[in-house]
Amino acid sequence: MPDSAILPGAEPWSHPGGPVGALVVHGFTGSPQSMRPLAEALAAAGCTVEMPLLPGHGTTVDDMLTTSWADWSAAAEAAYLDLAHRCERVVVAGLSMGGTITLWLASRHPAIAGIVLVNPAVGDPEGSPAMIAGLRALLDAGETTMDAIGADIALEGATELSYERTPIAPLISLVEATAEVRAGLGWITCPVLLCTSPQDHVVPASDSDRVAAGVDGPVERVTLERSYHAATLDHDAALIEARAVAFVEAVGAR
Prior knowledge:
Layout: E1 13-15, E2 20-25, H1 36-44, E3 48-51, H2 61-64, H3 69-86, E4 89-95, H4 97-108, E5 114-118, H5 128-140, E6 145-147, E7 165-167, H6 168-183, E8 192-196, H7 206-214, E9 219-223, H8 237-252
Parallel strand pairs: 2-3, 2-4, 4-5, 5-8, 8-9
Antiparallel strand pairs: 1-3, 6-7
């Protein structure tokens, strides 16, 4: 349980449905609010849906300071195992860090029927060490948070329910974890729907290219020309939902 009350709109969400399960995972400092439209589209298509609130998220940034990749990935894995126990087949969908977690799960659980990725973060093997060093320097200087990285949306009036500050130590744990995720890409053999925003100001589109080149399963790519990072809330949200539903219906029928 979080230390603070869950922000209105950030609640986890479940939907009972058919034999195909969909685990939907939100991003770093974000909440289920950013993935709710996609989760509801999958539910309307007949899926059993689980959309957890990851530890430290959806309350206050102070709650997140003591959490790390180990906590978020473990929570997502527990949700996957529960869903897999109840459903015949399971797909996993994730935005940003949710995509990172989705890739990690797919590398560990070959029974996953398919994965949907929206601007997934897998890091840069050349740039990550320098980024970690810079973040550690901020910690050493006594800083615990930095400017926010959420709410990168092109659609006027659309907002993402995310923290107004970014916790530094948790971010370091995420950047460090991307090395493990990149190393495991070759273990992913399930079909992949990979949605990428060329104009992403949080995660470079090259991360998606790295995913496409590294996984061993078939990759279907979708370019989100009109959207920024939080594309599930942006101009291309309906496109993502339509392609995801079609993808899940296809892989769920196999």
